[in-house]
Structure formats: C-alpha cells, structure tokens
Design a protein that fits this description.
CATH topology of the domain at 24-119: TolA/TonB C-terminal domain
CATH superfamily of the domain at 24-119: TonB
Oligomer: single chain
Number of helices: 7
CATH class of the domain at 24-119: Alpha Beta
Shape: flat
Radius of gyration: 21 Å
Number of strands: 17
Order of helices and strands: EEEHHEEHEEEEHEEEHHEEHEEE
Helix content: 25-40%
Structural class: alpha+beta
C-alpha cells in the first residue's frame, strides 16, 4: 500500500472564503435510479460494454425545473471503456420524468452534477484486476531483490527493473468525474465547515488515502495527516468523500482495476 500511495496526487483543493452551503436535495428520476439503471443495462450496446469492463459510467450537469422538466443536459465526463454506451445513457436520461429537487425544504429549479453508472460482475474485469495485482507483486519482489527501495522500505518509482516494466507506469489513474473541478463542486455542495473552527477562524487541511475498486466505489478511507487545531475538519472530509459519486476507476491494459489514491483538501478561512 505504501507503494501505491505515492502515485497520482490529485492536487490540493483550496476553497478560499469558504461559507457553509444550504442543504439541498437533488432531483431524481420518478422511477428511481435503480429501475432506470436496470432498464438501461438491457440495451445491447450497454450490456456488451458491461460484459467487457464491468462498468459503464457517465457524469452530467443538468437543470431540472420546479415542474420536473429536464433542461440543458450536458455530458461532463465519461468512462474510457464505455464503448459507445454514453449515447444510450444520455438518450435514456432525456426520455424520463423527473422529481424536482428542494432547497431549504422548498421545491426549486436546480442545476446539479450527477453520475449515471451501471455495474455488472464481469469475469474479464475480475481476471484483469487479479492479473494486475500479480504483476505488481512480481515487480515489487524484483525491486526488493535489487535493493531499489527508499529509506522507509518503499519501492522506488522507476520505469523498469531487469526489463520488467513498472505496471503503474502503464496505468491510467482513478479520477473523480470532472476531475478536480467536479470534486470541488461536490465539496461545495456537501461540506459543512466545523462550527467551532469556523467561529475561531481556523483553516483546515487534511490528506486522505482511500481505495477505488474496479466499479468506482470508494472504501478504506484513512486520514494520513490533518490540522491539529481542527480535527473535526478531517472527520467531515471523510464523510464528504464517502458520499461522493462513483469515481472512474484506474485503467490497465484496457480493463478497470482496483487502486489507491491520496487526496489533499485545504480550506482557508479569511
């Protein structure tokens, strides 16, 4: 795990002049997400993509009016292994009825970001993830034989050893849909700054480490470092990451795999 954590830092998400956001409930399909996903998965193109990669995922920005009318649907990001499924997902979203969202308990027109994701247990995807783990184990073993480690025992991030390539150099890292901008929007919509720290004008920062599985689900969240003056900031950051949309998983040899990420978050109170 120590080898994995050194890869792919997302970069500090700094939100200056932070103010608490009002709680809101986003619009949802009247039939519910589960029913919509089940119907979409029956499409031949989507089904084939699911058999290959185990996951079809797209990230959208949309406006739903107080009457439940969908407007301005915009594709923000999509999984690299969707294999033509994104057009199907977009068409399904345009042809359904919506329950409007609420703001402070009142029905309102809302523009919001959301992911539309469908997963299926795929033998091919599971085999690829297993193969990747085996390649990593073999590579780390070679590094240790050559003593190519840092002072703390972590293997060095070199390209190859004895002609064996570093599997991580061949990997497209897991990312949040919409990249940093998408995650910042999620934080702005869901983060409640700890009242004690806000009143005391204490800025917060934390570094989170977590796992993204081949289906884009986040787990094993740990706080690697945090503000000693405001430990509540770390607790809230964990909560916000836990409720985030699915991530787009890491890709290795045209297959989704499990990976670890580190995410620094900092907010300055001025």
């Amino acid at each position: 795990m120590s080898f994995l954590k050194n890869l792919g830092l997302l970069g500090i998400l700094a939100l200056t002049h932070f103010t608490a956001r009002a709680q809101r409930v986003n619009p949802e399909p009247i039939e519910g997400w589960a029913a919509l996903e089940s119907r979409t998965a029956k499409n031949d193109t989507v089904s084939q993509a699911l058999d290959e990669s185990g996951l079809v995922i797209a990230f959208y920005s949309a406006t739903v009016t107080k009457k439940g009318t969908l407007k301005d649907l915009l594709l923000v990001d999509e999984g690299p292994l969707n294999a033509g499924s994104t057009e199907i997902l977009t068409r399904m979203l345009k042809n359904i009825r919506w329950n409007p969202g609420t703001l402070k308990g009142k029905v309102s027109t809302q523009t919001f970001l959301f992911s539309f994701a469908i997963e299926r247990k795929s033998k091919k995807a599971l085999a690829a993830d297993s193969s990747f783990k085996q390649k990593v184990a073999e590579y780390v073993a070679l590094l240790k034989q050559h003593g190519d480690t840092l002072e703390n025992g972590t293997p060095k991030l070199i390209d190859s050893v004895d002609g064996v390539p570093n599997p991580y150099r061949q990997t497209q890292l897991a990312r949040y849909p919409g990249n940093d901008d998408g995650f910042i929007q999620h934080v702005q919509n869901t983060f409640t700054y700890p009242p004690r720290c806000l009143e005391a004008n204490i800025s917060g920062d934390v570094v989170l480490q977590f796992r993204v599985n081949p289906y884009g689900l986040v787990s094993h969240i740990e706080i690697k470092s945090e503000s000693k003056a405001c430990p509540e900031f770390g607790v809230e950051s964990v909560r916000v990451l836990r409720i985030s949309d699915r991530w787009i998983p890491a890709v290795w040899q045209n297959s989704y795999i499990q990976s670890f990420r580190e995410l620094p978050i900092r907010m300055d109170i001025n």
